[in-house]
Amino acid sequence: KLHERDAQLFKRIVAAMQQHDTSASRVLSNELAEIRKVTKMLSNARMALEQVQLRLTTIHDLGDAMVAIGPAMSTMKGLKSSLGRFMPEADSELNAMTQTLSGLMMDSLAGDAFNVDSDISSEETERILQEASAVAEQQIGDRFPSVPSPSGLSSQSSSTLE
C-alpha cells in the first residue's frame, strides 16, 4: 500500500513540476520522503526480525551442539587432572583445548548489534525533486516534436530548389 501511495505522490509531483508549481511539488516531495522513510523503516524492521529468527535458530542448533560438547569438556577436565600427574605438557594442552571450546561457545552466543539506519534529510527531498523533474522533462519531450536540426533544414531546402 505504501508503494502505491509512493507512486501516486510521485505522479502528482511530476504534474506539479510540469505546471511549475514549486511549492506544491516541494510539499508533496517532503511527504514522499516521509513515506519512503517509513517504508525503509518497515523494511529494516522486517530484516531485523528475520535476523532475530535466524539467530534464534542458530542458538537452538548451537544448544544441540553444546549438549554434545558438554560431556566432552567434562571428560577433558577429568583427563586434565589425571594426565597432569604423569604428563605436565598434556595439562597445558588440555587447558588450551578447554579454553578454545569455551571461547567458541562464548563467541557463538555473542551477537552483533542490529543496525537500523533511518536517517533521512532534505537531500532525499532534493533527490526526489530531481527525479521528478527528469520524468517531467521526458514526458514533455514525448508530447512535443523535436526541433529539426539546422543541417536537416538545409538539405531539405536544397532538395526543393532543384
Q: What descriptors fit this protein?
A:
disordered C terminus; mainly alpha; single chain; 162 residues
Produce a short descriptive summary.
This protein is mainly alpha-helical. It has helices at residues 2-18, 22-86, 88-109, 122-143, 150-161. It has one domain.
What features would you describe in this structure?
By secondary structure, the chain is mainly alpha-helical. It has one domain (2-109, 121-143). 85% of the residues lie in helices and 0% in strands. The chain is built from five helices and no strands. α1 (2-18) packs across α4 (122-143). The longest helix is centred in the middle third of the chain and has 65 residues, at 22-86. It is rod-shaped and about 100 Å long. It starts with a helix and ends with a helix. Mean pLDDT is 77; it is low at 113-119 and 157-162.
Summarize the biggest pleated sheet.
Answer: none
Q: Tell me the β content.
A: under 5%
Distance between the termini: 64 Å
The total of helices stands at 5
Total domain units: 1
What layout of secondary structure does this protein have?
Blueprint: H1 2-18, H2 22-86, H3 88-109, H4 122-143, H5 150-161
